[in-house]
Amino acid sequence: MERDLRARHYETVEKAIGFIRKNVRQQPTLEEIAQAVNMSPFHLQRVFSEWAGLSPKGSCSTSPKNTPRRRFCGPGPCWRSPMTWV
Question: Are the beta carbons of 71 and 2 closer than 8 angstroms?
């Protein structure tokens, strides 16, 4: 049961990352991201933060001071899959 839940969370975070990357210029709200992955904003915030170590909204800063966050939305290989975070 725990494995199924982890797999679902992985897929949800992966979908959220794809949505964020696709819409990074529009700076989607937490509610928009949650709707895109069929999850409540509260639950998405908790699951995403657990997997990624930062919030969905905090993951795509446009500030040059936050290079790791910028790489999240860019083509950098270390951010392509949530499994690389573990």
Answer: no
